[in-house]
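Continuing the batch. This is chain 6 of the set; chains 1 through 5 are on the previous pages. Same settings as before, nothing changed between runs. Recording input and output for traceability.
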Amino acid sequence: MTAVRGTPTGGRTTEPDAVRQPTPTTLVVRQLVADGAAEPLTEQVHREPPGRGELRLRAEWSLVSPGTELHYLDRSARTGERFPLGYCSAGVVEAVGPQAPGYAPGDRVIAMGWGEAVHSEAVTVPYRLCRHVPHDLDLADAVVAGLAATAVHAVDRAVLEADDEVVVVGAGMVGQLVAQTAAARGIPVTLVDLRPERLRTAAALGLNAADGGSFFATDPPQARPTGGRCVFLCGTGDAGEVIAAAARWADRAPGRPRLVGVGRFAAHIDFSVELGNLDIRYAARCGAGYRDAAYARGLRDVTAPAGEGTVTENLQRALDLIDIGAIRPREMGLPRLPLERAAQAYAELRERPAHPAVLLGYGPHEGRGTP
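Output for chain 6:
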């Protein structure tokens, strides 16, 4: 659709030689919302000009994060609450608000933020939740960095050593990104899942793959004389049995055994001496400063714990991993659909298809299908 623009209201500049810039106007655009149903609805909203510390983007792509978004759709269906969906967008800067340094109209950027970098034709986002996209990187690949920042944060939380072994349980979107991020450190990684179709891209991603029903039951011989074992738990539902099996597997290495939770699941753990000296950590979101409106708009700074990064730093690191080919969105089999097919995309994601996520497009490229 063609955006509806208001009437510009520019004033005189105090600098006679300055170039007069048009004042941003309100746009009318489409966006996806959860509004009491199991599938998203499309509505028209007014996208205001950027405020202090904000940018407004004309979106080209957004990434559906199935775990988070299906959770909020289900919650909306139960409670009647209303949520704008999405938090990973990529496009071109259309307007820059006051005190948003480093950005200008025409810049290609990624943006993230729940309730801000939503599935919409245009988004207004805090500048510290944006990063410049290299000129030779496709925006459809770059948008994956928003969710990959969660993987970067999770791998930081694991405190991996060079001689460790890693297993990632759950080959959904987050699991595949965690596995690639850990492998980028030169650590052997095995991706396990109960559904073999979810593992079909593992070889193209440079990962080992194993059946989740038998991997922990038939522990391979310990081949590494040093180092520990770390299991990333990236599944959903009841994970009690998986955690018990993963703890036994991790405890068989000579080094430090670790479990790192990522995502939404539930588990009952029997803490006793039989569990061994096991480190358990949880990795929430994507780094220090996320969901902090003052930090995101440059009103205050935050300090990440030692060995970890801010959300801004983690976004950049994720984007760098995509740019150098350590994270490979093109090999993950992500369908690319226009916004008009969003309801279909979410319905298919509920059935846990082979593809772990979907890209929604907002331009002439939007209907290209799966690459």
